[in-house]
Specification:
This protein has 2 domains: 1-54; 57-162, Histidine-containing Protein, Chain: A (2-Layer Sandwich), CATH 3.30.1340.30. The longest helix has 31 residues, at 24-54. It has helices at residues 2-22, 24-54, 59-69, 87-103, 130-141; strands at residues 72-75, 112-117, 120-127, 148-151, 154-155. It is built from 5 helices and 5 strands; from the N terminus they run H-H-H-E-H-E-E-H-E-E.
Length: 162
């Protein structure tokens, strides 16, 4: 009985959604919503690109710094003088970063190791692209309590294709 009732409700919702979508007003709503989503995505993309440029986290910046020193380091100027000695704060920072990595579609929380000491976060592991290094560092820099980010993330070696 419950299954039949759930099936009837599901069919009714599907028919209603189909009707709204196929009416002129429903199509307008869908187009307006799609336009708003597109505008918001463009604004977000522009904001992220500006942050990457400001923090010198563009793929070219990452490539140059990796070639020069083998690691990428960025400091938050406004928090550089603060010391975070509390071990629970470091654990909270690490947990927050790991949660962000899990939620991020392009970064792997399994492949990226996070270590926090006195607000200094060290990322290690392997990623596929320099852009992923930039994304990981930006994700960390946007976490409360982080004073500095050191990335020793390495690019995975891809087998040569013939």
């Amino acid at each position: 009985m419950k299954t039949f009732l759930a099936l009837v409700i599901g069919v009714a919702i599907g028919v209603a959604a189909f009707w709204v979508y196929n009416t002129n007003q429903g199509g307008t709503i869908v187009r307006d919503t799609a336009s708003k989503i597109d505008q918001t995505a463009k604004q977000a993309r522009t904001g992220i690109q500006e942050q990457l440029r400001t923090l010198n986290l563009t793929p070219d910046d990452i490539k140059e710094e990796l070639a020069r020193s083998g690691q990428v380091v960025r400091r938050k100027a406004e928090q550089a003088g603060q010391a975070i000695a509390d071990a629970t704060a470091d654990a909270r920072i690490t947990a927050a970063i790991k949660a962000k990595l899990i939620a991020h579609k392009d970064l792997s929380a399994v492949d990226i190791s996070v270590n926090t000491t006195a607000g200094v976060v060290t990322l290690s592991g392997a990623v596929n692209t320099r852009e992923e290094i930039s994304e990981a560092m930006l994700l960390v820099m946007e976490t409360d309590g982080v004073r500095e980010v050191i990335s020793t993330l390495q690019l995975r070696v891809r087998p040569a294709t013939k």
